[in-house]
Design goal:
Layout: H1 2-7, H2 29-33, E1 43-46, H3 49-54, E2 58-61, E3 68-72, E4 76-81, E5 84-89, E6 95-98, E7 101-106, E8 109-115, E9 123-126, E10 144-147, E11 154-156, H4 159-165, H5 170-176, H6 187-200
Antiparallel strand pairs: 1-2, 1-6, 3-4, 4-5, 6-7, 7-8, 8-9, 9-10, 10-11
Keywords: Signal
Length: about 200
């Protein structure tokens, strides 16, 4: 744990804003987490976007217990490991994984990662209730959000915002415009549209 706490010191370093996003590594994290491998922790801290894309958080552990758990507050995340505590300011980390659900911390909000289309860099989030298995319940009228990639700003999921953020990708905008984007839109309908878009645009 002492080594892990030392790692928290690197949070004072500048965030690697120029790191490149690789769309080929973007996959649904619930698929990774539920794989047969037992080496991927169910809880932990993502110090940066690269760790999130790789799917393996720092200071990870599996089952929540009295000795190992994560608590989130307005401006910080606290990780308890073997009764020792490490505190991470939300402004200095990418996010965290809690009970198999990945969260991105942005402007002191914890956005649950709801959907990462394979082959695309866009990420969909919600502030609504998550299942804890990397999926968000469609039956809840959640407010959905998106970011162009894992390092860009998060915006409410509206047609106007999609058009503005992806103004250089007209075919992608046209594909998403086939869905009437709204707060209570079931996410599976967006998945169907984007799956077809990826298939039709595959080389």
């Amino acid at each position: 744990m002492k080594t892990n706490i030392i790692m928290a010191g690197i949070l004072t370093l500048p965030f690697f804003a120029n790191a490149q996003t690789s769309t080929t590594t973007l996959v649904a994290h619930n698929t990774i987490i539920n794989s047969v491998s037992t080496d991927i922790p169910q809880n932990g801290i993502f110090l940066n976007a690269d760790e999130f894309q790789n799917g393996i958080p720092e200071m990870g552990f599996d089952k929540k217990s009295k000795e190992n758990h994560i608590r989130e507050f307005d401006n910080k995340v606290v990780l308890i490991e073997n009764s020792e505590k490490a505190t991470f300011p939300k402004s200095a980390i990418w996010g965290f994984r809690k009970n198999n659900q990945d969260y991105r911390t942005f402007d002191n909000q914890d956005y649950a990662v709801a959907y990462m289309p394979k082959g695309l860099s866009i990420i969909f989030y919600t502030l609504g209730e998550a299942t804890g298995e990397g999926n968000v319940k469609d039956e809840f009228e959640d407010t959905y959000y998106f970011s162009r990639n894992s390092q860009s700003a998060i915006y409410p999921l509206t047609a106007d915002n999609i058009t503005e953020v992806f103004s250089d990708q007209i075919p992608f905008v046209e594909a998403l415009n086939k869905v009437n984007l709204s707060d209570d839109k079931p996410l599976h309908e967006i998945k169907n549209v984007l799956s077809a878009y990826v298939r039709n645009n595959a080389n």
